[in-house]
Amino acid sequence: MPPPLALLLSTLFTLYLFRMERHRAPRMSRELWVPLVWHFILATRAVSTWFNPGAAASPESYLEGSPVDRAVFLALIVAASAILAGRSASLTKIVAGNPWLVLFLVYCGISTVWSDYTFVAFKRWIKEIGNVLMVLIVLTEKDPVAAAMAMFRRLAYLAVPLSIVLIKYFGAIGRQFTHSGELMFVGATTHKNSLGILCGILIIVFLWHLLHTKRPATRWERSDRRIHILLLLLMIWLMYLADSATSAMCAVAGIAVLIGMELPVMQRNYRHIGVVVVSLLVIGFLLEYSFDLWQVILTGLGRDATLTGRTVLWEQVLAMGTSPVIGTGYDSFWLGDRVELFWRMYYWKPNQAHNGFLETYLNLGWIGLLLLTGVIVSAYRKIAARMVGRDPYQVLRLSLYVVVLLSNLTEAYFKGLAEVWFIFLLIAVEYPRPSLQPSPAVTPSAARAAAWN
Fold it and tell me: Do 197 and 407 touch, CB atoms closer than 8 A?
């Protein structure tokens, strides 16, 4: 099939999927397109790279950034600010509902002062605030859960068919070769790990939909269910092509949470879910200490025990002598002389520490790591508190929460323009309002159907 024809058919299929959205209730506001575009850019690739996919990165270009990308992000941030102003979003409610996150973001902003590149760090921090604005648009919709699900669905409609077409017919964009000559399928993203984690997150969301919706009764509902099963299968196939061990592990763990929370013993003990999580962590630590479990897992996944050089990188970045208390400033470690040094040392040109907790320590020191821990614990407590009300959406939040934590063991996602960080904010941020509280008059089955439909 000629590539232009394949792209046309893919586009028509995507348009058909969006047309199907018109049958859903409640209808989403047009403002939801703003966070969707933001999410799509974070999940795939920056706008500038679509026009110049083969451009070679340099320390200077990484420092200066792209004027096209700056203009796009600024336009989206301005649009989001206008939307929230029009909805009279309450700053008091935001602070009251998310004190740890507010403290973390304020500290991130203050830390730009001691960065070697204050203006660059400040611009990156503004984009961080943009993440929160996009999440707040979703949370201030009339039905926040339905809005979040609509955004996930639409992201899949855009990214999944496009990735398949790019991999099969536009190899210069959808496929890459590593320096060792290994073929890497990236689809609409820029790396196999990015494609893998994107598919992993969408697989969990779509599987949750299949588990928590009523049996289709109408012709449209049956057609909709078949389409979602098809998309789910395509995501699984893309994840297989990506061959990302971390993403696969995260997806399996997230699915295990979805299925495990359906067991009667877990549903009767929602109040004790924290004990279960802590017990699993302790058991995992004991197995690692006694049997070197991590190396066994890596060997089984066909990966080396150094995580493709990550452990060596961790030792080297820690030896750089950054301030252990305040770090180098928000998102500033991989700038200037340091990034030049590591790009000379490593052919794959690292621009992150490949561990979210370590990356936070390098940029923000122990203070930032402590505040991030507060955000993580606070997010879990919010989810656990809602679990008691048998709200099925909290099961999805918990599953994605596990994915976020696991993915940050080998990738640095606790910052800026990373899709996983955006997902974390989506499940962690709360905008206190009556419509977010689970109603005791709503049965679990009805709530499940409303959450997706």
Answer: yes
